[in-house]
Amino acid sequence: MIRVWDPFVRAFHWTLALSFGVAWLSAEGPEGLHDWAGYAAGALVAMRVVWGFLGAPYARFAQFVRSPSAVIAYLRAIATGSEARFVGHNPAGGAMIVALLIAMAATATTGWMLTTDALWGMRWAQRLHSLVAHGLLLLVLAHLAGVAMASLRHRENLVRAMIFGDKRAPEPGDVA
Asked: Over the stretch 98-154, which tens digit does the pLDDT of each residue have?
């Protein structure tokens, strides 16, 4: 086993998941709780962006953000059952991280915009926030499906890895 996910990445991941869950479940409930969960999510995304440049090796964007052609090639390999195991994030996972960070930032930003005098009570702004939040939920569901599929295909519990930080050491054919 090797250490892949540092404590910040793991705490960020689970705290962001909790913030999103609280915000989602409180959307029609206590406004203060919903707002603060959204502010927490926005702050977490900002911290993760900084960590993506300054953090541990597997946390850095340079390690897992790949070109669109690399992501497409990896998705094709998944379709044929020939995808390589990556010690860090695979190309599809890296693309999902970027999409989730952008969608979470957009959700938090549009939510904050609803609290400004300029957009308070504006129906179109509320619809935009709802649309972005629903899109984020779809991305979260796709992320969970991808984690489940990769865990099964590579015989590796990725949820456990995100809790404890360690993964199976690279084997022949794996991408470190």
From this structure: 999 999 999 999 999 999 999 998 999 999 999 999 999 999 999 999 999 999 999
Ramachandran angles phi, psi of 67, nearest 5°: -70, 155
Instruction: Give the domain ranges of the chain.
Output: 2-165
Radius of gyration of the chain (CA): 18
| Amino acid, res. 19 | S
Other C-beta atoms lying within 10 Å of the C-beta of residue 103: 19
- Is 70 in contact with 89 (CB distance < 8 Å)? no
Range list of H helices, 26-86: 31-54, 61-64, 68-80
Give Cα separations from 117 to 9, 33, 112, 121 (angstroms): 35, 20, 11, 9
Of residues 59, 86, 76, the one with CA closest to residue 150? 86
Tokens of 105: 């930032």
pTM, whole model, 2 decimals? 0.94
Q: CATH for 2-165?
A: 1.20.950
Answer whether 10's CB lies under 8 Å from 165's CB. yes
Q: Give the pLDDT confidence of 53-76 residue by residue, as tens digits.
A: 999 999 999 999 999 999 999 999
Contact 104, 45 (CB under 8 A): yes
What are φ and ψ of residue 35, in 5° steps?
A: -60, -50
